[in-house]
Amino acid sequence: MTSKNKQVVGAYDGFKVLGLPYKQGEDKRRFSMYFFLPDAKDGLPALVEKVGSESRFLDRHLPEQKAEVGDFRIPKFKISFGFEASKLLKELGLVLPFSGEADLTEMVDSLVGQNLYVSSIFHKSFIEVNEEGTEAAAASAAVIALRGLPPLRWTLWLTTHFCS
After folding, report:
1. Distance between CA atoms of 157 and 159, rounded to whole angstroms?
2. What range(s) does the Serpin domain occupy (predicted)?
3. Rounded to whole angstroms, how far apart are CA atoms 164 and 136?
4. What gap in Å lies between CA 137 and CA 134, rounded to an integer?
5. Which of 4, 10, 94, 157 has most Cβ atoms within 10 angstroms of its Cβ?
6. Which CATH fold would you assign to the domain 77-163?
7. CATH topology of domain 2-73
């Protein structure tokens, strides 16, 4: 991916940040992809550590100013990641859907919803950048179980898909 337009950039102590905004058509939300480049050739591990350990690091280091950066290139890549999210969601305080007190009646056309609960949630996402642009998608699946009976499971897929 290359571009000669003005870009959102920032220079900080030990690294630079390049932000690429995405066009969304009629969608009023604004999405951007940010690339963090350490100044030192072997500086990526230290930068990753800094991003993960400093509170509100991203809030303080996402640039807003546009500037001409000259010719730049971003190599093509594809990354995907998936995980079981139930434990993390519970740690963040979302416990009711996983409990015996969950009431999922608005998710089904039957009173059986009173006996349903979320047994687990899975999430998977990917992003691909190439010469033509970017494609990304994310999906979450909730495994719904029926209380008090042998395991009967349904899966609900929630998908978000972005293209530019």
Report:
1. 6
2. 10-143
3. 9
4. 10
5. 10
6. Antithrombin; Chain I, domain 2 (3.30.497)
7. Alpha-1-antitrypsin; domain 1 (2.30.39)
